[in-house]
Specification:
Blueprint (H helix, E strand, L loop, with lengths): L6 H4 L36 E5 L4 H12 L7 E4 L31 H8 L11 E4 L4 E4 L2 H10 L7 H4 L9 H16 L1 H7 L3 H21 L13 H17 L10 H4 L1 H13 L1 H4 L4 H11 L27
Parallel strand pairs: 1-2
Antiparallel strand pairs: 1-3, 3-4
Helix pairs in contact: 2-4, 2-9, 6-8, 6-9, 7-8
Bound molecules: glutathione.
The site of glutathione (GSH) has 15 residues, from α2 and α4.
């Protein structure tokens, strides 16, 4: 589909870092919303979600879709974790177990969707992608906004009990926004800044604040089930996707190895296992094969031989006896 050479946009090994060796994430470019009377009104089976199970940002949207019971409302397509020179491939190009073909256009790669939506697009070809099947374009490719869309946009059309679930409640918004800000910078994006750094000072400038932030989260979770208030909020969802990848990937691949979650953070470890083992929206959207394969295979500048390590064994520890988490 692409007539111009876009490999500088799709090939992660050609991604540039800053002059000081630090990694800066580019902002997402499609930022529309779904709303009554807008360009993208809420409608059953009108929208489609393209994701990778490997990607923490995409996994946020999968978790929210499950929690809000939007499975019948909005279909999903999962790409292969083998993100190569053309970016994320569909199963037609790379039939990794669990990967799927593009049911809408038979695309070979996620980049084909971006170029269909906008042939002049000059950003990275990232997942998640929220797609409008009517206008054949991208509604939004920014996970933090897609989860807010899922939280409210379809409420009029879904069962009452699901519509009533609010993961960004008005009375907690201020606190959620505050926590999201530093969790994003130091933890969600902090692991990438640590892993993609190409100088020791840039690495240290990311990894130390990352562990300070984990220490802070550990304190916040003392004697508590959820991060904010006494209910599950988007702050838990946004943190979970990074923590569940921490011991299996970030400790080794991204050199975030000052401590592990299982060895060094008992409160975060208990919170993680509770979400994974007691709420299916978390376990059913977490695929350790896709996760580990993606990072260790795709980032050849960090892991040139593409060996995917066996451990940790197990990828996530069991829940344990009640009261003895
Ligand atoms: N800010 C975006 C980030 C999405 C993102 O960076 N996704 C990664 C996968 S974890 C991706 O698709 N990267 C492809 C690339 O950069 O070429 C969001 O939160 O949705």
């Amino acid at each position: 589909m692409a007539s111009r050479d876009v490999t500088h946009q799709s090939d992660i090994s050609k991604m540039k870092v800053e002059a000081d060796g630090s990694f800066k994430r580019a902002a997402s470019q499609f930022r529309n919303t779904i709303e009554e009377g807008g360009q993208f009104p809420p409608e059953k089976d009108r929208y489609h979600l393209y994701v990778s199970y490997a990607c923490p940002w995409a996994s946020r949207t999968l978790i929210m879709r499950k929690l809000k019971g939007l499975e019948d409302f909005l279909n999903v397509t999962v790409v292969s974790p083998h993100m190569g020179t053309d970016g994320w491939p569909f199963a037609s190009v790379d039939s990794f177990p669990g990967a799927e073909e593009d049911p809408l256009y038979g695309s070979q790669h996620v980049k084909d969707l971006y170029l269909r939506a906008d042939p002049t697009y000059n950003g990275r070809f990232t997942v998640p992608v929220l797609w409008d099947k009517k206008q054949h374009t991208i509604v939004n490719n920014e996970s933090s906004e897609i989860i807010r869309i899922f939280n409210t946009a379809f409420n009029k059309y879904i069962p009452e009990d699901k519509a009533a679930l609010d993961f960004y409640p008005t009375e907690l918004r201020k606190e959620i926004d505050e926590v999201n800000e530093w969790v994003y910078d130091r933890i969600n994006n902090g692991v990438y800044k640590s892993g993609f750094a190409t100088t020791f000072p840039a690495y240290r400038a990311a990894v130390l604040p990352l562990f300070e932030a984990l220490d802070r989260v550990e304190g916040m979770l003392a004697g508590k089930t959820y991060l904010i208030g006494d209910r599950l909020t988007e702050a838990d969802i946004r943190l979970y996707v990074t923590i569940v990848r921490f011991d299996p990937v970030y400790v080794g691949h991204f050199k975030c190895n000052i401590r592990t979650i299982r060895g060094g953070y008992p409160n975060i470890h208990a919170w993680l296992r509770r979400l994974y083992w007691t709420n299916n929206a978390f376990q059913s959207t977490t695929d350790f094969e896709h996760i580990k394969t993606h990072y260790y295979w795709a980032h050849t500048t960090i892991n040139p031989h593409r060996i995917v390590p066996i451990g940790p064994v197990p990828h996530i520890e069991p829940l344990g006896e009640p009261g003895r988490l």
